[in-house]
Amino acid sequence: MRPTRRRAIALVLSVAALAALAAVAASAQQPTQVPIKLRVEAKVTPNRAGTPRKPQGVRIGVVAHIDIPSDYDPPLVEKVEVWFPRGGVYNGHRYPSCSQATLDRRGPSACPKGAIMGSGRGTATADRVPTYPRITVVNGGRDRAYFYTVMTNPARVQAPVVGKVRKLGGRWSYHLSATIPKNLQIVAGVPIVLNKLEINAGRGSWLATTSCPSNRRWPYKARVTFDDGQVLDYADSVPCRPARRR
Question: I need a surface site. Which of 27, 81, 166, 241 has the fewest CB within 10 A?
Fold first, then answer.
């Protein structure tokens, strides 16, 4: 075999070996997706719909379970979104509201009494130690709802989670989007892993309904985005009854 041919073959083998090593390295750098399970339970009270001329005020109860296997490094919840069904109405502009600046400085106690619209709690772990965030739902006006959150473990921290409300058309009436502040994701250097979230909200006609679909089910959709880029969607429906005929 000629020297030039031997050198060419060696060069090809070297390039192939480097390519194989690069592929292995790239594969090793790709994170394994955590097999997270999302389950949402929702209830609307009362479930008899109103009409466009006479909306029916409702209370909404939501329980979200986020199951993460213990043998994985758990990602942190970064964003929560909810789509509300057609026939739903958000009347934040008709009730007393509170500003984010007031909540940042003094908390919900400084808000008008009529701006408090519900409460909730979470179940989370901070370095495997349970912690239970407490939540106050506050009206923020036409396109805002605040979820003021207080945690005392591993350190006391309190901050409003801003829920942005956007009116839609078609199948969905409104879209609620809430990004979790960094100071609620990591407290005193410890990541907060959310396992369960419960919210009960609604007073008067702050949340209302004007119709019930022919299949007598109000659909809804939820989405949770994690800090590792993983996105989980969940879709379901709750029973409803048409408005009484007069």
Answer: 27
**Burial, 47: exposed, middle or buried (Cβ in 10 Å; 0-12, 13-18, 19+)?**
middle
The encoded tokens of residue 125 equal: 């772990």
**Contact, 243 vs 103, CB < 8 A?**
no
Contact 163, 173 (CB under 8 A): no
**Residue 131: beta bridge partners?**
124
CB count within 10 Å of CB 246 equals: 5
User: Across the strands, what pairs with 1?
Assistant: none
Confidence grade of residue 73 (pLDDT, cut at 50, 70, 90): confident
Q: How far apart are CA 81 and CA 180, in angstroms?
A: 11
Q: Give ∠ CA 111-136-57 in degrees, rounded to 5.
A: 90
Bridge partner list, 203: none
Going by pLDDT thresholds of 50, 70 and 90, the confidence category of residue 12 is very low
Compute the half-sphere exposure of residue 2: CA atoms within 13 Å on the CB side of its CA: 3
User: What does the angle CA 231 – CA 77 – CA 188 come to, to the nearest 5 degrees?
Assistant: 155
β-pair partners for 187: 190
Rounded-to-integer distance, Cα 193 and Cα 199, Å: 18
More confidently predicted of 245 and 100 = 100
Helix (H, G, I), strand (E, B) or coil at 93: helix
Q: How far apart are CA 68 and CA 37, in angstroms?
A: 7
Q: How is residue 204 written in tokens?
A: 């008067």
